[in-house]
Specification:
The protein has about 375 residues and is mainly alpha-helical. It has helices at about 25-45, 50-70, 75-85, 100-115, 120-130, 175-190, 195-205, 215-225, 240-245, 250-260, 270-305, 310-325, 335-340, 345-355, and strands at about 155, 165-170, 360-365, 375.
């Protein structure tokens, strides 16, 4: 590419002074505030135990989804145990299935959502260290807790020999000054919190200061900025990453069309801001459904707690309820019951029948024989 050709957003003459049309964002901001008000209203009405569950479940969804966006899969139970260990004084450590990686991920998410200290370069490095402490990226160990030194940082997709360059980051010599400007913006700007969060997210991704983990840290920065906007002590009520992960193809497309001046000839980030605000709103709507589900789970156990269930049955029900009924692919079968409990087929069949008789689960309509499936009765 001719060095005189401006292709990437950071090469534009007015970068990092971003252009956008605030008038196009007004209706979205009003809708977000409306849904945020609903969530905060619900949080004040529910029981303390339910509020704690909502907080943990929202952090769980954030952890699972911010990693999934980058293709990294965490076991839900490992992350849940890391969260319980961090946030629940009554956590039973004898059943701890957390890992060092899930503990570190939780440290980042809790810190960015609850620690209102100013954002600093050392804090960013701390988050990066949590992501990659003692870990290798493929065959090479990446630089951890320090900015990249390479000038050839590219976002690439496709098989070897057929790669497509989606983005080329600025040279490493520009990182220090650019990060300093970004941190001043995060700590001092009085821009609307949701717009500020979206701009900071985009700006960090543009800088791409680390060899890996830039997307996850960008989302942590976005969460941090929003956390300053909500009343202190309010539980985490929604997961931005959950909404983004559901629209992952759109996410990468809007990044491409914002950071590449071939598409963004007007140097206008309004479409990115519109999309990002839509993700905030979608996250709040998803959270309303999640809160409803958590309340249903509480009512379920209030109803079934005294039905003399054995440890196997409780384990299976907890497994289904913690994943979410919609997330337990295909419903409960005898085979899945066997896999979870490691018991005999006869015992599994007896346990399932008892759960049906006690009204804890019911047979899914239209299933029978070996294809019989069951669902929790909420």
């Amino acid at each position: 590419m001719d060095k005189n050709i401006q292709k990437w957003i950071w090469q534009h003459e007015v970068y990092p002074h971003f252009r956008f049309d605030s008038s196009k964002l007004t209706d979205r901001l009003i809708k977000i505030e409306h849904h945020r008000g609903i969530l905060e209203g619900i949080s004040k009405l529910i029981a303390q135990d339910d509020s704690a569950l909502i907080n943990i479940d929202t952090f769980l969804e954030e952890a699972i989804n911010t990693s999934a966006i980058e293709g990294e899969i965490f076991q839900r139970q490992s992350v849940r145990d890391s969260l319980l260990k961090k946030l629940d004084a009554n956590f039973d450590s004898s059943k701890d299935s957390s890992t060092h990686q899930s503990d570190n991920l939780v440290e980042i998410l809790v810190d960015c959502a609850t620690n209102r200290s100013p954002l600093t370069e050392d804090r960013l490095h701390g988050w990066h260290n949590c992501l990659f402490e003692n870990r290798f990226n493929a065959l090479e160990k990446i630089r951890v807790a320090s900015f990249r030194e390479s000038d050839d940082m590219e976002v690439v997709s496709g098989a070897i020999g057929h790669e497509k360059v989606h983005y080329k980051a600025p040279p490493s010599s520009l990182i220090a000054d650019d990060i300093a400007r970004l941190l001043r913006y995060c700590n001092e700007s009085d821009t609307n919190a949701y717009i500020k969060s979206a701009i900071a997210y985009l700006w960090f991704v543009i800088i791409h200061p680390y060899e890996d983990g830039n997307g996850r840290i960008a989302r942590a920065i976005a969460d941090y900025i929003i956390s300053l906007h909500i009343p202190k002590g309010t539980p985490k009520l929604y997961s931005l990453s959950s909404a983004i992960n559901k629209k992952k193809k759109e996410y990468y497309k809007i990044l491409d069309r914002t950071t590449n001046l071939f598409y963004n000839r007007d140097y206008d980030i309004t479409p990115w801001l519109e999309w990002h605000l839509d993700m905030f709103d979608e996250a709040m709507l998803l959270s309303q459904n999640n809160i409803t589900y958590i309340i249903q789970k509480t009512k379920f156990w209030d109803r079934c707690r005294d039905k003399e269930l054995n440890e196997r049955q409780i384990k299976v029900l907890n497994k289904i309820l913690n994943i979410g009924v919609d997330g337990f692919d295909g419903g409960l079968s005898t085979k899945k019951y066997l896999s979870i409990t490691k018991t005999s087929k006869a015992t599994a069949a007896r346990d399932i029948k008892e759960l049906v008789d006690k009204g804890c689960i019911k047979q899914v309509a239209g299933t029978s024989g070996r294809s019989t499936r069951y669902e929790v009765v909420l």
